[in-house]
Amino acid sequence: MVFTPSAHVRGRKLVELLGCWSGTARPSSQLLAAAVRQLVLDGRLPPGTRLPAERELAGALGVSRTLVARTLDRLREDGFVASRRGAGSWVKLPDGERDNESHGGWFPTADSEVLNLAQATPSAPPELGAAVDRARLRFPEQLSGHGYQPHGLPVLRERIAERYTKRGLPTGPGQILITNGAQHAFALVLRMLVSPGERVLVEHPTYPNALEAIRGLNVTPVAVPMIEDGWDLELLAANLRQTSPRLAYLIPDFHNPTGIRLDAAGRAQLARALARTCTSAVIDETLAEIDLTNDEPPPPMAAFTDRAILVGSASKSFWGGLRLGWIRASEDFVQRMVIGRAAVDLGSPILEQLVLAELLQDADQVLERRRTESIERRESLVAALREHLPHWRYRVPDGGLALWCDIGAPVSSRVSVAAEQHGVRLAPGARFSVYGSLERWMRVPYTLPADQLAAAIRRLAAATASVRDGPSPNILTAPIV
Ligand SMILES: Cc1ncc(COP(=O)(O)O)c(C=O)c1O
């Protein structure tokens, strides 16, 4: 396959992507080539990306130009880089990397044949149809107005506020700002509160698109590692003190990707740490209502501290296609957000807001079905993993939509590349990492129906075996950095 060079990665950006590529060893062309290969295989350097000139790259990496030249030679030999006089060098996948016969597996010919486990996104609930019908009847009332509602539609703000009150956090509609999803909500808050060069504290691992938003603003993520059973709150507090981040971004409700929930005592401790350092926190509640237990849920973080800016979403509880989320904060903050928002967008679509307002009338029913379905699918996934990948380790989460699996070796990017060739798309651990690490981990969602999950895990097991058995030595036996 011939790739035309497209995007250009700058030296500095490549250095950031490479992280500490030589580890503790002396820098060598072998290590650098392996690190670049890993970025290509992991999809963080898409094929076609133009590389910086040798001199720029050597300068950015602080290595000799000879080492860079040797690295490019190695990558060219392995088929990961192509060069043309006058056009420079760009990354590519080796020919044969997508060669069906050489791997003996099932290969998709069309995107629709891929079983998508890269996103933990459920399909729409059956109640959506009736909600659309009801919303359509209400729509004409809106048509005499101009249709711009930068705060969001009053009826939707009211219903979201009511749900918070029901969850133990008294809330008025003036405290709600409707956005185009939780990601949009976080990006708006980030843009308003944080300036380039400042720091934002995140959990490690964390939600990849939040990291994208942070990096996109030239803000530095400060990563606090999660431990076996959740948050190391003392370490988190120490990081707040020592690094003085401008903001924290945290997912205490069925954390993506680990699925762990912070209990009430932990929330109180976190609130104290935020108060002591005067740090505001965006609390991403996207998965809060995908609760697969019968336990009384802990109150939302904002019940513990007014430093918590809650961000919610219709995507997991209802449907991602609505593209609606919200911010729950003080009325004053919401007012400031409305003013700040105007630079980016002027409000969310009215019809979708009416649909969500209607769906919220059926919220308990929709969520109960989501719960039952997710429990069943979680069980199907666990059963398939036990059968086909018995050495993978995970804790069965109390909520959320995915398992976070320790796959036993630092090869999750390679497994996900092989899996794509077997017709399964996955998000490897590195996607959730600030440094591109977490190669022992793979997130596996349980949002597909049971039969598709079983098929996906069978294919995944074949892909994992192909990585272990190594049919393509130039890729699969590359040193891991
Ligand atoms: C933790 C978390 N935050 C935000 C989002 C994005 O939500 P939305 O679709 O509302 O933008 C997701 C979606 O997967 C998520 O898991």
TrEMBL record:
Residues 26-94 form the HTH gntR-type domain. GO terms for molecular function: DNA binding; DNA-binding transcription factor activity; pyridoxal phosphate binding. The keyword Plastid does not apply. PROSITE patterns: HTH_GNTR. It holds the Pfam family GntR. Keywords: DNA-binding, Pyridoxal phosphate, Transcription, Transcription regulation. The keyword Repeat does not apply. In the C-terminal section; belongs to the class-I pyridoxal-phosphate-dependent aminotransferase family. This is HTH gntR-type domain-containing protein. The lineage of its organism: Bacteria, Bacillati, Actinomycetota, Actinomycetes, Pseudonocardiales.
